[in-house]
Amino acid sequence: MSLLRLKNVSRVFGRLTALQDVDLEMEEGKVYAMIGPNGAGKTTLFNLISGFFPATTGEIWFEDKPINGFTPEQRVAAGLVRTFQITEVFPELSVAENIRIGVEAQENHSAHVWPGAQLMRQVNGRVDELLAITGLTQQAYRAVSELAHGDQRVVEVAIALSMKPKLLLLDEPTAGMGRSEAGRMVDLIRTLNDKQHLSILFVEHDMDIVFGVADRIVVLNFGKILATGTPKDIAQNPAVQAAYLGDAA
Amino acid sequence: MSRRVYVNAAVWILLLTVPLWFPWVGGYTSLATRVVIYALGAMALNLLLGFTGCMSFGQAAYFGLGGYGTGLALIHLTNSTVLAVVLGTALGGAAAFIVGPLIMHRRGIYFAMITVAVGQIFYFIAERWNSFTGGEDGLTFTRQPIHFGTVVIPLDTVWFYYFVLFFFAVGAAVMGLLLNAPLGHTWVAIRENRRRATFLGIHVERYVWASFAIAGLIAGLAGSLNALQNNFISPANLFWIESGNFVIMAVLGGMRSFWGPLIGSIILFGIQDYVSSYFPNNWELVIGVLFIIVVIFFPNGVLGIIRQRTKSA
């Protein structure tokens, strides 16, 4: 069973065709990286998958269910959870409060007006668990706006994890980070995949990270998929070398 | 946590003992009653403005409807002041609940404009419907003593203060409980980052609606108490300038704080009372200048300054 499947997916903005006839099949339990030059359509594809806007034509299946007509909220409920290129957190709240909002939303407690002590214990237990997984326990009670940029991005991942994703979509998770911060994010991606068996799709510009972490690489160029394969396949693919890695090699 | 307990204890002790100490600082009990009533209205607005991040500029509509509901109930339906409060509050809450779906999709300035527009509709209805609302002249009625079996509570000045304080406590307790429950966490999440909230599967609009309805309900309660204090209600209580008063109180006192609007109400009525005895026509200028200073230099209001001081100390 494939986790996510796209068939003939296109997206047109006015006269611009941002994506054209994209076919993609993702297996469960793997880490996928999406690469491509600026304007290749990576973010557009991300937005289509997460439901930020609909595909102009084509179909998307998640766990063999068609999700074309799903709103973003419904996709989240189905297990498709994303982070954003620009960090999207709740800045004035503490790290723990940020995660708690996610936990409460995931467990459909967001509208509770009279939570019992047992419910709050259960919620707080899950928050502690997520703090531990992401290594944020030390910073739990600091306001997110006071944290370093790298830590803020980790908070965003923690919020996403609170939604119990089946597929985690990370839009440029290391954008704007220094080496050590990026390294920590890479470790987190690895841990999530190894220990939590989470399927991950991420967009990334840093080739060291892409080739170091991904099981599969998807290469986009001019709104089309140029190649999909293991890092080894991609490194040896002449079309990819010509179009994208050419100037780096 | 413990700090919050101390703050709450201090606020309640001060409020409960107002008739004892307030005259010593130059106040009088009915001024305190007014401060508490408007504080409740401003706290209701702040549920929307400070905790959900939606700028409502039409809160007076529900405040005024609460007053009309209570006044009309006393004139046509009942001698029970308590029942009249309940009916007035219900009218404010019901109106906000019905208006909610019209405004919940809007954001920012559009949200503010629609809340003003809807508020003005209620104003014009009250002003034109002479036979029922008394039109521009408003309605006059008399709050009735409360009968508990053989015990009669007269609702004169001091009793009425405690009558108001009781309902203020109910309103504040409801808002405090909601804000500490997951519902309150969700409202704050919407204030902080709507897009992120949407992508957590939160139906933002429904929560804005809930916030608007509850803010309207509590505003209705405050408006009902206001009408009882004056034994009078007129379209002025529905007018957008009255809405502006609530916004000024919330911003002056501190939008991020639960008790901020109470501080704002104290400041506003304090200045009105003291300054107007020296400059009867210009006290609003003082408020205006103060408002500008706070907005530019202390965006989190008076309580924001205190909080920052105690944090860095």
Task: Give a short overview.
With 249 residues, chain A is an alpha/beta fold. Chain A is 39% helix and 25% strand. In chain A, the strands form two sheets. Chain A has a six-stranded mixed β-sheet, with helices on both faces. In chain A, strands 2-1-4-5 form a four-stranded antiparallel β-sheet, covered by helices on one side.
Class of secondary structure makeup of chain A: alpha/beta
Low-confidence stretches of chain B: none
Distance between the termini of chain A: 36 Å
Q: CATH fold name of chain A, please?
A: Rossmann fold
Average pLDDT confidence of chain A is 88
In N-to-C order, the SSE pattern of chain B is: HHHHHHHEEEHHHHEHHHH
Q: Strand-and-helix sequence of chain A, N→C?
A: EEEHEEHEHHHEHEHEEHH
Overall description:
The complex is a heterodimer of chains A (249) and B (313). With 249 residues, chain A is α/β, with parallel strands linked by helices. Chain A is 39% helix and 25% strand. Chain A contains 9 helices and 10 strands. In chain A, the strands form 2 sheets. In chain A, strands 6-7-8-3-9-10 form a 6-stranded mixed beta sheet, with helices on both faces. Chain A has a 4-stranded antiparallel beta sheet with strand order 2-1-4-5, covered by helices on one side. In chain A, β9 and β10 form a beta hairpin. In chain A, α3 crosses α4 (117-134), α3 packs parallel to α5 and α4 (117-134) crosses α5 (149-162). The model of chain A has no long low-confidence stretch (mean pLDDT 88). Chain B is mostly helical and 313 residues long. Chain B has a domain at 29-240. Chain B is 74% helix and 3% strand. The longest helix of chain B is centred in the last third of the chain and has 27 residues, at 204-230. Chain B is globular and about 55 Å long. The chains are: A alpha/beta (249), B mainly alpha (313). The interface between A and B is medium-sized, with 33 and 24 residues.
